[in-house]
Amino acid sequence: MTTLPYRELLSGDKPTKALLKKKKRQGGRNAFGRITTRHQGGGHKRRLRDVDFSFEKKNIPAKIETVEYDPFRSAFIARVVYQDGERRYVVMPKGIEVGTTFLVSEEAPLTPGNRLPLGKIPVGTFVYNIELQPAAGARLVRSAGNYAEVIAHDAGFALVKLPSTEVRKVSDLCWASVGTVGNEEHNLVNLGKAGRSRWLGIRPTVRGSVMNPVDHPYGGGEGKQGRGLRRAKTLWGKPSGKGQKTRTPQKYSNVFIVSRRKVGKRKKA
Question: Hey, how many other C-beta atoms are within 10 angstroms of the C-beta on 1?
Answer without folding.
Answer: 8
